Amino acid sequence: MHYETIRTESRFDGQVTDILLGPGPANIVTARLMEELSDAIEKSVDTKATKLIVISGDGKHFSYGASVEEHRASAIREVLPRFHRLVGQMMTCPVPTLARVSGLCLGGGFEVALGCSMIFADVTARFGVPEIKLGVIPPVASVLLPGTTGQSAASRMILGGEMVSAHDALRMGIVAEVAEPDTLDATVDAFIEKSILPKSASSLRFANRAARHAIAMFYWKHIERAEVIYLDELMGTADANEGIEAFIEKREPVWKNE
Questions:
Q1: pLDDT digits (tens, 9 = 90+) for 102-121
Q2: Which residues contact 138 (CB under 8 A, 6 or more apart)?
Q3: Domain ranges, residue 106
Q4: pLDDT for 187-221, tens place per residue?
Q5: Contacts of 251 (CB under 8 A, 6+ apart)
Q6: By the 8 A CB rule, do 40 and 19 touch?
């Protein structure tokens, strides 16, 4: 498959696959990117020697989020289920996955990172789900965040649309490691060399499957209902459609509260 929105590279003698989301600087999660990311992950899993998949953003940011244009009512019924399947694929991926995050990691981009086994970030990272500002919601984060941060912290992020810093994300359990500026690559590589490469690729896959089984089953159990809330209830309201159009037209939304 020819990739238009991502780049892949094999490192450490084929034991690590790097996937770079693009095009920068925004690295928007479009339907095309979803398809290509899914294919790249599948190909990495098919390679028995693969011990880790590292997902990064092209440039200074991980991702600004999902395509707002593709969240219009005319497109979202096709795009949202596809995105939920992608995150589900990541949740059940036998190969461990690591999101390497610098800069903005928002909306659908943040949800891609949440789908990984772990997140490493540098101090420039900012995490958030600002969907509520557009009158919509983040279904994946609504399902996964409470189990990571606790209900109160998750609700604050989802209802307020606030961003949190890398150090706050570490405290909240979202991030596993925070690196200083310009040291994230070295921090990730040091982890790979110390904690991943000496292990059996086969055994790492069994360990990752076991460690993520409960949360993956929780995700599949609840994402369908979150999807129904979004597509069949939320998108039938005036404000959800107004918020999307206002963002595209670069104006303030006029809420009807209905």
A1: 999 999 999 999 999 999 99
A2: 107, 108, 110, 111, 129, 131, 158
A3: 1-181+201-258
A4: 999 999 999 999 999 999 999 999 999 999 999 99
A5: none
A6: yes
Whether 193 maps to a domain, the answer reads no
Residue 187 belongs to a domain? no
Domain assignment of residue 191, yes or no: no
Q: What is the DSSP string of 72-129?
A: SHHHHHHHHHHHHHHHHHHHT-SS-EEEEE-SEEEHHHHHHHHTSSEEEEETT-EEE-
| Residue 225: partners with Cβ closer than 8 Å, 6 or more residues away | none
Q: Where are the beta strands (DSSP E) in the chain?
A: 6-11, 16-21, 52-57, 97-101, 104-106, 118-122, 126-128, 164-165, 177-179
Total domains in the fold of the chain: 1
Q: In this structure, what token pair is assigned to residue 21?
A: 């989301």
Give the whole-number percent of the chain exceeding pLDDT 70: 100
DSSP state of 59: S
The CATH code of the domain that includes 46 is 3.90.226.10
Question: For residue 53, what is the DSSP state?
Answer: E
Whether the predicted model's global pTM rises above the 0.85 cut:
yes
Token pair listed for 130: 């600002």
Q: Rounded CA gap, 43 and 59, in Å? A: 24
Check if the beta carbon of residue 135 is closer than 8 Å to that of residue 243: yes
Nearest to 176 by CA among 102, 114, 119: 119
188 assigned to some structural domain:
no
